[in-house]
Amino acid sequence: MTPQQAFGTAADLIEGYAPEMVRLQRELVAQNAVGPVNHGPGEQAKGAVYQSWLEGLDLHLEHEDAPDDRVEGGKRPNILAYTREQGPRLWIIGHLDVVPPGEMGLWYTDPFTLTEDGDRLFGRGTSDDHQALVMGYFAAKARQEVKEKTGFVSRVGLGIMAVSDEETGSAMGLQYVLKRRPELFSAQDLIVIPDAGNAAGTLIEVAEKSMLWLKFRVIGRQVHASRPHIGKNALSGGARLIIALEELAREFDYEDPLFNPPYSTFPPTKKEPNVPNVNTIPGEDVFYLDCRVLPRYPLDQVIGAARRIASQVAAQQDLEIRVEPVYRKESAPGTSPQAPVVKALQAGVEAVRGRPAQPGGIGGGTVAVFLRRLGLPAAVWMGDPDTAHQPNEYCLLSDLVADTKVLAHISMMGG
Predict the structure, then answer these.
(1) How far apart are CA 179 and CA 89, in angstroms?
(2) pTM of the model as a whole
(3) Half-sphere exposure (CA, 13 Å, Cβ side) for 353?
(4) Tens of pLDDT, residues 169-200
(5) How many CB atoms lie within 10 A of CB 112?
(6) Cis peptide before 165 (omega within 30 of 0)
(7) What is the distance between the alpha carbons of residues 162 and 114, in angstroms, rounded to a whole number?
(8) Closest CA to 89 of 191, 194, 204
């Protein structure tokens, strides 16, 4: 049997997997895997569900769990399942953890109960990142069934990795695995991370912006709201600071067409509570900026500019303002658009979706950065309706089927 014939057989099998794909999504969504940083229980329950599916595959299965006494059981699961043949592997890497649902009133359905609406599968994590877990499992299942039916053996191996802690830095996820098991990967591997893309399934992410989260603590003087003249209103000062920080976008204004959007972004996001009652002038106000910075700008330069702007507002408003970086991740050198994994994805997308795929950059952060820092060319890709972190998150069943076929194409054709 030729690789092309093997792929045809796999594609037919994958078409029939759609009901099982929905079932796996349903079981994954039902497990709240919000990490402890966001006051969640962690990934153990979801990892157990996913492992129960993987155990039915002819893959070597092991764990590289990270210790964490904040969660029940004291560890964060990192599940590794792979073939043991010598030579390059197709690695499919997804993450188990999810972000919190956010404001529950914005959800039309229970975020931890899968809801089907035509082609759409609603629930927290369906896209970010169950899509990767489902694709990985069924690509491996198709590969195994093709081998059992026809005897076809691909010239590339296969590996699936389901990691924890992606949403809050990956120190207990892929970073932990890479430190403990660097021998798992080689520069010849085809590493695919289904964690971002576009609706057409044609964006192959090869570069990411740097990430920087800044915390601003505005300190004034709390007083009764009827006597604002003797106090120092930290909320008012914080509002002025938010407006002043718009200068960052003007100062770091370079545009790179590889990225979408092509410029650095600096939106204010989270705000901590201040006073609990209306009739008190707050003496402290805390908010955060989420900065996604083009690789040409060092993050220290951005931090310096933010502190300069904060000092100016503090002087103008007679306040104290402290600026603290709470998370930073410098971008890594991008994956070459000519890398074998990019070419393999382009061939697979063309074969399955009938349209050309192109390399590009994103502002979101993925675990690809940790692989790229080690000189391992990784590509981030999937069909993505762009609902991650939103209320009413969903993925498309048609994307699950099509994208699993693309991975099967790589697995059968060998890249």
Answers:
(1) 19
(2) 0.85
(3) 24
(4) 899 999 999 999 999 999 999 999 999 999 99
(5) 17
(6) no
(7) 20
(8) 191
